[in-house]
Amino acid sequence: MEEENRELNPENGSGFTKQHQEEEEDHKVVKFLDSADSYLDLFDSLSSTLRQGWLELATARQSMGASRINRALFDLKYHNAATSLQVIQDDVKQPNFTLCKWVSTNNQNCSTEEAKFDEDELFEKNSTNAQLRYRGTSEIQEKSPESIGSKLTVVDQIQKERSKSLSMFGTLVSPKLRCAQISFETALDTLIEMANMRSSLLSAYDQVHKDMASTKG
Amino acid sequence: MYGFEALTFNIHGGYLEAIVRGYRSGLLTAADYNNLCQCETLDDIKMHLTATEYGPYLQNEPSPLHTTTIVEKCTLKLVDEYKHMLCQATEPLSTFLEYITYGHMIDNVVLIVTGTLHERDVQELLEKCHPLGMFDSIATLAVAQNMRELYRLVLVDTPLAPYFSECITSEDLDDMNIEIMRNTLYKAYLEDFYQFCQKLGGATAEIMSDLLAFEADRRAVNISINSIGTELTRDDRKKLYSNFGLLYPYGHEELAVCEDMDQVRGVMEKYPPYQPIFAKLSYGESQMLDKAFYEEEVKRLCLAFEQQFHYAVFFAYMRLKEQEIRNLMWVSECVAQNQKSRVHDSVVFIF
Question: Does the UniProt entry include the keyword Transport (chain B) (predicted)?
Fold first, then answer.
């Protein structure tokens, strides 16, 4: 293939351009396949995390009793969602999804409805910390302030919010219920990663498809 | 005085002791659990249970089954057996049998109050209540805004009234208050039951003291572990421990200041009856603690049947039946979630 290119245009750059083009096409196909592989890995990871979460919930029910963990205790009072999803669409073809955990009512992007919150001070602190959004625990370390004291404050706040979410089942809950909560939180993070990966996958597929169409044309 | 129960017990209690020993022989064996653990679907579980004493309660249930249906029907059997014993019992056995249900009554009260706080429909909450803990005015709980109203409007006419003296406030009910109310009520109930058994004397007092002391100690451990990392202060935590049991008072002092599982282990390992329980756990682990406690409880409950002419057999039977229902719930959940490899994590064999 390379010899053919040199015979056609031995001295100018068009042979090199064609080679470069082919390399780019190969790169796009590899990117597509990588995205597909990552997507399937995330799918497996999500499946196993959810299985673990459901089993931990059943274990917590076994420990605390069926009267303490059942859907009749879900809180139907109006309250803001502890977690919301932001869709950033800089590129129309590849939207980016970000999870906003324990967000402030001041953050209009994440909450457009009015709500009364007793912990305004807590959430004002959160909103000044460069919008506390993260995908998984690794980003907590990236986004949180450098000083150890501030890091501990963020972790404490997160713990408080987690306990608040669980309070519908009571204040003194089994550690197994807390483990189930962590598992479902991890599953949510994985879902967002899957959404981003799928977005990347579809974008890579479009590019490959376009290249194939232009090659045939 | 000990030993003379044989002369008079059978006059009033002989029939019911025979009945409860008959019920005991109907509890599921290890062979039954092995069959259940090999089931692929909930319908298979239903088929196996139809061949046991649960048969009449499950055979007409339509498919597809749900785990809650299996638990409800099995609980119905327990309720029928209890009611049969209660209607045949004379004093003081009838009061003893009623004491066994006060724990469920407390759970039902807390369920209704919590559900109402969360704006749930009262009818839906009543369906979730344990049938052994029902009383006439339970639906009226939904109108109370604070504990004082709860007591004045509803609970003053129930057996739980004496247990409310320590937790009556005019503060509005919220999640923390309700949790403290639950544990304070249960503490008062256990202490009252303990005193009642002491008054009965004889083998009943001896065996029930051991069983209730174990219950109080287990509750103290669970409260300590569950309150780690919460806003419950050390003093408030200590107030929730019962004033009897092997851990009272020095174990309670140490448990009140524990900040993690290893510290709890350190406290409990000083007490020889609890050393084997914590020896089964690895450091930092609390996952298998419940199963270890249930196994110890089942061992003690089975020993109650080794003696005659006492009321502890009734308490032991009710608790063993509840353990059996917990086992069935766990097996059903594992089968429904296709997690059969984990089925032995929480099943406690009785025989």
Answer: yes
pLDDT tens for each residue of B119-165: 889 999 999 999 999 998 898 888 888 888 888 888 888 999 999 87
| Cβ–Cβ contact A74 with B under 8 A | yes
Contact A59, A176 (CB under 8 A): yes
Same domain, B178 and B217: yes
Q: What is the pTM of this model?
A: 0.85
Residue B87: exposed, middle, or buried by beta-carbon count in 10 A (0-12, 13-18, 19+)?
Answer: exposed
- For chain A, the distance separating the N- and C-terminal CA atoms, rounded to the nearest angstrom, is 20
Q: What is the pLDDT of residues B59-68, one digit of tens each?
A: 999 988 999 9
Q: Residue A90: phi, psi to the nearest 5?
A: -65, -45
Which A-chain residues 104-133 have CB contacts (< 8 A) with chain B? none
Question: What CA–CA distance (Å, rounded) separates B243 from B245?
Answer: 7
- CA-to-CA distance for B337 and B312, rounded, in angstroms? 37
Number of structural domains chain A divides into? 1
Whether residue A17 lies inside any domain: the answer is no
Domain that holds residue B45: 20-82+310-350
- ipTM associated with this complex: 0.91
Distance from the Cα of A215 to chain B's closest Cα (Å) equals 49
Contact at CB, B120 and A72, closer than 8 angstroms: yes
